[in-house]
Amino acid sequence: xxSRILKCTECNxxxxxxICPACGAVATNPCPARYxxxxxxxxxxxxMKRFYDDRQxxxx
Length: 60
Ligand SMILES: [Zn+2]
Description:
Layout: E1 6-8, E2 14-15, E3 27-28, H1 30-34, H2 39-58
Antiparallel strand pairs: 1-2, 1-3
Bound molecules: zinc ion (ZN).
Zinc ion is lined by residues 8, 10-11, 13, 20, 22-23, 25.
């Protein structure tokens, strides 16, 4: 984790709290949101990586 800063989903204000102090909406990590159009591919890639990691750790 680079930082724990969060971004409000309503007013886009940056905050360290999970609830925006300005409007009371939920604040989320802004980094994953930037990749939202590719999210399904990202999760798919992550799933594949875990699959290969499992095969490597099981070995033999
Ligand atoms: Zn807000």
